[in-house]
Amino acid sequence: MKLIDGKAVSEELKNSLKQDVLEYKKKTGRVPHLAAILVGDNPASKAYVGNKVRACEHVGFRSTLVKLEDTVSQEQLMDEIKKLNEDPDIDGFIVQLPLPKHIIENQVTLAIDPKKDVDGFHPVNFGRMAQGMPAFLPATPYGILLLLKRYNIETAGKHVVVVGRSNIVGTPISILLSRKSRSGDATVTLAHSRTRDLPNIVRQGDIVIAAIGIPGFITEDMIKQGAVVIDVGINRVEDEGSLSGSRLVGDVDFESVKGGCSYITPVPGGVGPMTVIGLLLNTFKSANKEIYS
After folding, report:
1. What does the DSSP assignment read for 158-195?
2. Are 153 and 228 in contact (CB under 8 A)?
């Protein structure tokens, strides 16, 4: 078994991007600018946004954080999105999820200018991605593709089983891996909680991508010998032996699965850091007008 070290790969890519940013600054006299809207005080959201701000600092981006109370109205949030859409100095921005229950998330997604949608959630970018056109890819699937490329994991002709069908991870990664491309050409099965005989379906996967949001859902008996296992899950569970009283685990039962697979991502330190890299690379592409010229 080989560990797929997302933290190490992300550091390599950030250092490479840092050099690209220096060249970009020499050429244009400016640096890429990423903004984030954070609604409320969700601890996980605050931590994620903090990681993104620190990553911007590392590679030389400008970053702007717009903090809003969790009582913000839909109209007020839309106004903030409009400001960022119209600000010529902002190359890309995100609205950190989840949002308060009174906010209609689809309206928020649709309000973001596709040319600044560096999270890759807007239907325009999603549709362009599905048709193999230039697009901002959703950050987590983008990060997964980068990991597969970095570890020279072949996807062509392989059977990939994706467990989880969210619009953020499961559905887009199933599309990307089935496309005719270097990190594609796979036969993809998109499974989920309603899939019949799910363990047997997962067991057929040469590559298994777990993104179902249930701690330890994928167990040893569901993984065939030599499979590649990509764990996207980030779940906090109680742990009396920890100083904080809890710990992070993935959707894969790591200890039972690791012995039989060829490659596996840990949690934390696997896919998570690569999501931030995907976001940074999308922002740099936006600054360079690579997607929408």
Report:
1. -EEEEE---TTTHHHHHHHHHSSSTT---EEEEE-TT-
2. yes
Give the pLDDT confidence score for residue 183 in this predicted structure: 86
pTM metric for this prediction: 0.95
Q: Is 178 exposed, middle or buried (0-12, 13-18, 19+ CB in 10 A)?
A: middle
Integer Rg of the chain from CA: 19
User: Given 5, 52, 116, 251, which residue is catalytic?
Assistant: 52
**For residue 47, pLDDT beyond 90:** no
Residue 9 DSSP class: H
Select which of 5, 91, 96, 285 is catalytic: 96
Residue 141, both tokens: 């699937």
| 96 classed as catalytic | yes
Which CATH number applies to 28-116?
3.40.50.10860
Q: Considering 5, 91, 117, 119, which one is annotated as catalytic?
A: 119
Kindly list the domain boundaries of the chain, sorted by start residue.
28-116, 139-273
Query: For residue range 248-286, what is the model confidence (pLDDT) as tens digits?
Result: 899 999 999 999 999 999 999 999 999 999 999 999 999
Q: Is 74 a catalytic residue?
A: no
The answer to whether 119 is a known catalytic residue is yes
